[in-house]
Amino acid sequence: MTDPWYARLCAHAAARPDTTAWADDRRTLTYREWADIVTARAADFADACGRPVAIQTADPYLQWRDWLAAQAAGAIPVLFHTTLDAADTEALCRTHGIGRSAAAKPPAGAGFGILSSGSTGLPKLFWRRSHSWIDFFPIQNPLFALTSDSRLFFHGSLSFTGNLNACASVFWEGGALITTARKRPDAWWKVITDRDVTAMYLLPVKLRHLLHVAPSVYPRLHSLFAGSQALDRELVNAIQTCFPAATCTLYYGAGELNFITYCRLEEWQRNPGIVGRPFAGVRVRIAADGRIYVTTPYGVCGTETETTLGDLGAWTDDGMIRFLGRCDDVMNCAGHKCSLAHIESVLRSHSAVRDIAVFAVPDELRGEIPVAAFVSETAGTEEMRRIATVLPPLERPRRWYRYDELPLTDCSKVDYRLLRRRHRH
């Protein structure tokens, strides 16, 4: 067993055997115990050596155990979203030769597969070499203030690449991974305080839920890192108030390209909408049409040359990048192009709006129209219509749907695919 992840686990088990490696609602495990569990489980993947295997379970403990064990046995694990239906799962397995003999094979040297979020369509599967992450940890971890003493809280499925990377980066340092299956943000807060959490990875949508119920200041948090999209001043102020001692880092990235840019929370406050400067070793070019092109040695297999994801941006005077949305986030309404991300951003900035998703649906007269699903304790649909009058008439959502909470994918992202299906007519 020469896999780098397993070798690192064994090294931690030898150097810090009694240090907590994992804690959830049912168990607390040391690195010595984790090494024993993964070693025993690896025997179950022996027949899959050299081949990809699908792991599809909702339990992060089982996901993490099997992800490590499969690689220890020489297999190539792929964590599947549990929200994928049987037909979509079968289609991905068939296309990529998972679980059966097939012409399609992973690229040479692939250590594991990852899935895109699937928030707007069928997820895509990408193959990663282990060192595309491992070689980036010396850059990423100091910037995120992650050390061997970090006790990381995360929430949700490890099939979300952001969660998987966060766990892998703290594991690599020899820190502790802490989570809960409970859905209520007040239960998360109890875990955070009871388990003496010092680091946190949550996307803005979950940070917003957590800080909405946070009863007090938590000075023991040293590190918080999160995706920089869907931020607003209210959320930023709440983060700074609740976690006054934390190094707060915002990033822009994607599963297939890894981390691209970063900035500190204070920098975002001075210049809202930025996603920061490129990480060391990552080159970014913005074309005349606004598309962001990235050259990175830390991407998935097949992204060795300059790559674009269809995101739009612009350079600021001080060398930062301002995110301007995605090419496919542009709606054509009565011949006018409108940015759905911009509409969302404007509406989210209102204090009455706790969360919002704006998406396009077909319309016989205009081609497409914007509609919105929103979360608010104080505003109903009529108030939302009034709030939207700050937008030009064509950008104002035509229909409004009030939710207690917006539906999320396994990747903790708003499930636009589900929203469009629900509200297409």
Instruction: Please indicate the count of domains.
Output: 3
Low-confidence stretches: none
Largest sheet: 13 strands, mixed
Q: Major sheet: order of its strands?
A: 2-1-8-7-9-10-11-12-13-17-16-15-14
From the 3D coordinates, which CATH architecture of the largest domain would you assign? 3-Layer(aba) Sandwich
Task: Give the tally of β-strands.
Answer: 22
Distance between the terminal alpha carbons, to the nearest Å?
A: 55 Å
CATH topology of the largest domain: Rossmann fold
User: What is the overall silhouette?
Assistant: globular
Q: Which class of the largest domain in CATH terms?
A: Alpha Beta
Proportion of residues in extended strands = 25-35%
Q: Compute the gyration radius: what is it?
A: 22 Å
Q: Look at the helices and sheets and give the structural class.
A: alpha/beta
Relative helix content: 25-40%
Mean pLDDT: 91
